[in-house]
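Most newcomers find our protein records easier to grasp once they have seen one. Read left to right, the backbone structure tokens trace the chain's path through space. Once this layout is familiar, the rest of the handout is easier to follow. The record below serves as our worked example for the rest of this section:


***
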Amino acid sequence: MDIFKVLTRGTNIKSNSINRNYTKTTKKTSLEEDKELDFFHNQTKKNTASNDQIEEQSIDDEDVSMKDLLVKNHFNGKLIYNIDNHLLNVDKPTEIQSKSIKIHTENEDIDIIGISPTGTGKTLAFIIPLVSKIIANSNDSNMNSLQSIIIAPTNDLAKQIFQVTENLVQGIVLNHKVKKSNNKLDVQLLNSKLSNKLLFENDDNSIKLPQILISTPKRLISVLNKENTESILENVKYFVIDEFDQLFSCDFIKQTEKLLRLFDGKSNINKWMYSATKPEDKVFNDIIKNHMKQPELIECKYSSKLTSNIVKPKITESLVFVGNEQGKLLQLRQLQQNAQFIPPMLIFLESHARCMALYNELKYNSIPMATLHSKMTLNERENVINDFKEGKVWVIITTDIMARGLDINGIRTVINYDIPKNKELYIHRLGRLGRGLTSYSDNKGKKKIECECITLYSKIDAKDVVPIAKVMKQHGAEGVPVWLVEGRVREEKKKKDVNKLKREKISTVPGIIRKERRMKKEMIEASKKRKQEGIVRPPKKQKKANDNN
């Protein structure tokens, strides 16, 4: 484990849960000495919000701390205390957090679309205003009712949102006049156990519900499809969609729209949607047109300095041409030999089968590694993530289940073994890097942590790598071929299924051995077939013995 500590010097492999050894130092200033925030207020709204509206906002993050921002806007004192003491890396607000808090403060009823790069604290950008509004609007009639629903695409992400929210609401009382044990703000993660509880009534014939419910779309729909559940949504005022670009993709769009339609006819419902990227223009415009009421758009563009309160590590993006699938494996071993195999590391592939194949090729390299994919149970995935945070696992070979939202500090290297399906997914993978990393000091003085995102591509990836190359160029990456950025690649022949690439298997077994194995397998199968059909092969003719004696 000492080796791991050396390799990850300056890293913090901890989740954003409570760290009791963490001591935060904040510069104390009086409110009178602070610069006044430049609040903005749009006089009119348009059906489609424009980026220019957001760019007109001016927030001086260098002079305003998160605590002072919340105090200025009269947020609940206990909420401010919890943010200041139980949550890390929130000394100063990020751009998306500042803009969200200010818009929500000045508007009671408003729909929001928030777009900001990964690692900028989007969860807090909607959780802080949400908790504040629930506290402010709580009364005797809605105190024990569901007031807000948050949906996320995966169980892992939903659980992460739950953990952050749970820390945020510690000890917050909704009604001090009511001396009951159940008058505290309650947040719950929807699971099978809670799903059953929601259908049982208390002695007073009322259903005890949390004020904030977090779930995946599928699990929430499974509960709402049951009988006698209409009352659950009666007092819901806030419907939040995290990673909305994924939830409006082909995998989730039916589920997401089904939930949205439950609230479309209600004028008192506020819909908030947040993501690192936005869907294609048609899908995005349809969302606004069909499901939102004159939303405000908050769009924060990519910046190498994502937050103002920490020194971000240097992130290097590179493209490596490897020829074919065998070249990918050889390049991976070459990176290991050249000391570019720096943990903690994520290696992304397109399927769980390819994850297992690569794991079987690398597991004997004396580096602690594990796989993480959707075919694993929730407990299995949690165990892998916990081992990764504790340094027991250095490398995770995974699918894009790790690309979205999961907040794990300390990741130094991301390798795209398989090309991301689109540029949005590349941005999400890139966003896993550098969280919680700052500069550190050694015997030679102060050093800055460097992180690297390496994308491998072969001949069959040439067309798909073009949008990735364009994004890298926008980020200032060096060495990106001009012909790739300009899209000057050889067109592939049309296939029946153009969206699915036929990749070779991940293996270092020589071709001649693979051929022998295949022939042997075919012979065995042919023998079995003959037996099933009752075909008996004639016995081999024996050579006549020579009778020379």
About this structure: The CA atoms of residues 196 and 449 lie 48 Å apart. Residues 36-299 form a domain with the Rossmann fold fold (CATH 3.40.50.300). The first strand starts at residue 112 and ends at 115. The radius of gyration is 28 Å.
